[in-house]
Design brief:
Shape of chain A: globular
Largest interface: A-B, 43 and 43 residues
Oligomer: homotetramer
Number of strands of chain A: 15
Mean pLDDT of chain A: 96
Number of domains of chain A: 2
Number of helices of chain A: 12
CATH architecture of the largest domain in chain A: 2-Layer Sandwich
CATH topology of the largest domain in chain A: Dihydrodipicolinate Reductase, domain 2
Helix content of chain A: 25-40%
CATH class of the largest domain in chain A: Alpha Beta
Strand content of chain A: 15-25%
Distance between the termini of chain A: 38 Å
Strand order of the largest sheet of chain A: 14-13-12-11-7-10-9-8-15
Order of helices and strands of chain A: EHEHEHEHEHEHEHHHEEEEEEEHHHE
Largest sheet of chain A: 9 strands, mixed
Structural class of chain A: alpha/beta
Low-confidence stretches of chain A: none
Chain lengths: 384, 384, 384, 384
């Protein structure tokens, strides 16, 4: 676990994440797990009463009716929050992030970062201008084995990358769930709140980011076929993308929320000149790595041959499964290291600096935009 | 195992499959396994001495120097061969098949059927004209669980099909093996002998055929990105295809021979409105089937809930693995049933009529052609 | 997550778990994860300076030099701890538990509960006398799928149980690690601190408890072969046990710390008249359940067909892996529910009452004792 | 595939294996697969009419009413059989083997070899006296990966062996199937025809033989608990055995035919000082091998790092699954090599000499006997 000399926990605020929300509770567990934060201020719901009740249930000292009031008040306090977590539906990410950045407060933001490229570009500008820390919770980058893969690929163990298959398949929207009043399905299939991409923005961005994060490659062009299978749905629920990456690499990306039988099946397969590897999110503690013409090797979290970046993100000995919460917590803990270093006027350790940031958020929005443009143009190759 | 009243084994001839060949020996095991054939005539090699020696080693009674002589002589004999197996490199399939069909002899032909669409169309015409039996050895259709899948999908257990992922990944051509004198690599990467598709024709056609065979869907349009990763290679070694199928279904197809770490990783995932399922060739005795909102079920060859078509192709109780030879043998045995019925002037049993035929071979060549046309046209959507 | 009306977090104390310890940090994460506790008092190390430093690093308000002083002082405070967690080496569990129970403080104790049967019997008496809550952290009982199994078996879904295979294999003691100064290996192989059972007490007790917990069966007799493979080791490192359970069921139990290649491979297979099932700790979110003559079903945490007891222990949707920390946290959270109910003078919910207690601890010590007696008596059948 | 200079196929006879039999058909496929035998004589059934009909259906030239007549007649012919396959129920193995050995004919015998130790000892004497070849079809020793394991263990790659877990679990006798008229269940649960061991003789002997075959270790003592779970059954259906092997190794053996959900789940786990490995019959083409403190490696049939003995038993490239028939065929092919060498007055290749023989059959019967004696003696340690 990360070392710090700061003699207190960081003070965390939260916007969104009230009753019925999913990701807010995950953020709170993640913040707590390594004991680097205390949640002291929140605007949990747009309903003032619910917001106050939820705050009391969560032992949050200061509850606000609006994020704007919260940003202003916390910025003014001596003991105001160090950082805010934004866990609202997507369309609110931008104004809230803007408010807190302008108030001088670091930001942890759920993904996708915004609902369009223009907003994303503005946030990039604002982060550059303020110099504040901006963490984007692409959860899966917190998994130790994803960091292991990144270190292996960048270290050349697979040679030049040729082909990547990145997939994210779910089935929770195989039926018109949004027509049943389910809160999560409702806002995630509403373009006004979710953004123009459905499955594309919700999980396609994870699959895209992971391919880039682990290999350091960028996307030059993509050709996409975007489908809405469920009648009446207002956004896509299945996307197929062919990608041409930097250095001549190719990739296939498939994201679907109608793949009956798949729960949260994010997977990554990377093939280089000298080796290949496979990782599946539902079995996150293992990689199968195959050096060319050698026997495949099973790499386990905490086991033999583990990289420094992977060890940094590991809490338990091998064989004791870590999961989704721990991956999420790693992002929080790394951001805590970054903020702590800022407070102590130190350099944060390099291993704590792998958290996706505002630039990744912008790239993600450009990916969403390019996929939709390609699809509208009958799958023509389209630049990001 | 199939019942027959014919009081003899069928007489099999073989063209190709001499020393250094791979698939010829597989065909011979397949023909022998269920004891329906005896190999009595052959032209095993283009080298007459080698051909004769190989025939003697294999206890083959009659050895011929050329396939033309063989077709003529066998057709003239009272006890001539009932059927010929063609196991040469691809460019010879067409002339040999033509010669034997014209001589009135049934044909079992390895795939891809020809090296272009025109040849394939001619074979279709010739088979229609002669009324002879033409079996195309798409091996994987002989697996009991593939037939199980077909019966489940056609029986509506998955509902309307929405999305298919069909993949065939290998790594044996990850290096320029053809430059080392390896016989298999040499001809399979030579467009003159293999046809214009490399990986595309060799294994892409399997992945394509399997998607259609199991679902009954046809391809309306495809968009393809075709790559040659290994420098100096004369054919493709990696293809990515997006497909628009009949009934609004979509599919992704990936075939690669440079996917380091993959041995013979053919897999099929099918998602319908009411269920999904997964099958992997390297674990061919199992399917995972997930009815919508129910627990996934493991279906095992010979186990509970097995379909008639699957049982027909099963020899051993569940838990006793059957493999590639048995799948291949099933094609031979089904063809034996068909030929036997012809001899006995009966109808063959329906379960013995799932063997791919000359029309499948034509569709395969149209697939190869469409992929190459799309690729040349910067991945434009292309009809078959 | 459990609902509570208590308007504060529970106050937790900890004895043991200072620098170099493993399980203490796990207990702290577990206590934090569902936000039901705050750690306010501790005696983390037998070294006073280290203890104080560690307390400061962990933001613990009150640090004590001895557990006796801590029990006395905390009992005297208005805002004293509600419950103490005992995470020392095994030989200290008994005196510490005794001290806190006598001070009127609830106890969470790591396992094995004591180092002999006599101590265990005394704790049973003391808990009965005081009426205090005593939780024994058999971690694996906190896994949702273990609770699912229990509910399925007790609900009769497998019919009468015939055969159980319970295994716990590790390899971290395959070499004489204790001779290298490794702290964990040192005390765990020292009979004075670990108790007379090595592998037997450390992990064999888990495998035994799990078999009983999930089935409700008790052990009538056992026959054991106990081995020390590593030269110079003072305790066993491999045990084989045959068990005769209640209702005529049989079981096999194997625990080993020299099984090279096994990380933390605890597994459970249960076979009844009407069904069988399998669970592996390293893939804790899944069960394979096979009803007699039906297709095996994969049951996933949070997925279709999940029992109430399993849902109670679940935080994330299916496909988002939960792991070891979450299982451990479940025990803490259930104990929190129990303590809260006590404070509020309510009945705790039944689903929160599956945490192993002092009687389980006694049964575990009787198991250790019986195994060692059987082994000394050349594997004679021995009653607990 | 093995090379031979014999200019003919070997002449095979068969006793047993008529209508309704299971293993006879397997032997015939096995004999055919590598084209080393032709089945020319048989006494397929004790019913003369059925026997003749079955022979005709199988294209067998010479059909006999009794094995005695067959042995006599075939021995007298110039072109008599080279070898006989005995595939009857167990109680007939001994008299038939005796008859053919005394007639000077090599024997391939199904297992268990006899129904008691005395018969087995007589066969050993008879084989020694006649010098004839006697192959015992412990199928699983024909798997390439089992031979790979043997070569690795004997080559020291695991160091001194400490612990073995050998299991064979099925569920086909979980209900009183023998009371329904099922032919296989009927004789296999009849002590008069099957021998005194039920599950013990049928599959326990496989698990025992495999542990010894792969490691070269012998059993010094065993302690067994033998159970009949299904009411009315006349033989055991579940056995648990603890074993003390040579060189201080230990083993656990479990065989069951009432383990609901297990199809043919034979598995082997071997742990030595320097490494461990795992193999499962239902996925026979892979081994997981874990060298101490290194990453586990997946060894695939035909893949990198394969031993000579394994390559010898391999027909297809890696990724093309071989299964049960191919394992069985390997025994036939190796015996063909041995007989051919005898005919040609040569030494057979060493790799063809791994087929279990009459001594293994005797050891198997001693195992059965010792398990039953131990069980009767309340699981006392018993020497073979």
């Amino acid at each position: 676990m990360a070392e710090t000399k700061l003699n207190r926990r960081l003070r965390l605020g939260m916007v969104g994440g009230g009753p019925g929300a999913f990701i807010g509770a995950v953020h709170r567990v993640a913040a707590r797990l390594d004991d680097r934060y205390e949640l002291v201020a929140a605007s949990l719901s747009s309903d003032a009463t619910k917001s106050a009740e939820a705050a009391r249930d969560l032992f949050v000292a200061r509850s606000y009716t609006t994020y704007a009031a919260m940003a202003q008040a916390e910025a003014a306090r001596e003991d105001g929050i160090d950082v805010v977590a934004i866990v609202t539906p997507n369309h609110l990410h931008y104004p809230i992030a803007k408010a807190f950045l302008e108030a001088g407060i670091h930001v942890i933001c759920d993904k996708p970062m915004t609902i369009n490229v223009a907003e994303a570009e503005e946030l990039v500008t604002l982060v550059q201008k303020t110099g504040l820390i901006f963490g984007l919770t692409h959860t899966y980058t917190g998994y130790p084995m994803i960091r292991q893969i990144r270190e292996m690929v960048l270290g050349g163990e697979l040679g030049a990358i040729r082909m990547i298959q990145s997939e994210y398949a779910q089935d929770w929207l195989a039926t018109p769930l949004e027509q049943t009043g389910a809160k999560q399905a409702d806002w995630r299939t509403d373009p006004a709140r979710s953004g123009p991409g459905g499955c594309l923005g919700d999980i396609g961005t994870h699959a895209f980011h992971l391919a880039c994060f682990t290999t350091g490659l960028t996307c030059e062009q993509l050709a996409a076929d975007v489908t809405t299978f469920v009648p009446g749905r207002r956004v896509d629920d299945n996307i197929q993308v062919m990608l041409r990456l930097s250095n001549g690499a190719k990739a296939g990306l498939w994201a679907s929320q109608i793949a009956v039988g798949e729960e949260n099946d994010l997977s990554l397969r990377i093939y280089g000149e000298k080796g290949g590897l496979t990782w599946r999110q539902e079995d996150p503690n293992h990689i199968v790595f195959t050096p060319l013409k050698e026997q495949p090797r099973i790499i386990t979290r905490g086991g033999p041959g583990i990289s420094a970046a992977s060890t940094h993100a590991t809490r338990l000995p091998s064989g004791h499964p870590e999961g989704y919460f721990e991956a999420f917590a790693q992002l929080y803990t790394d951001i805590a290291d970054q903020i702590t270093a800022r407070i102590l006027q130190q350099q944060p350790p390099a291993v704590a600096c792998l958290v996706p940031g505002v630039e990744d958020g912008l790239t993600g929005m450009r990916f969403v935009d390019a996929v939709l443009r390609s699809a509208k143009n009958n799958s023509a190759w389209t630049s990001l």
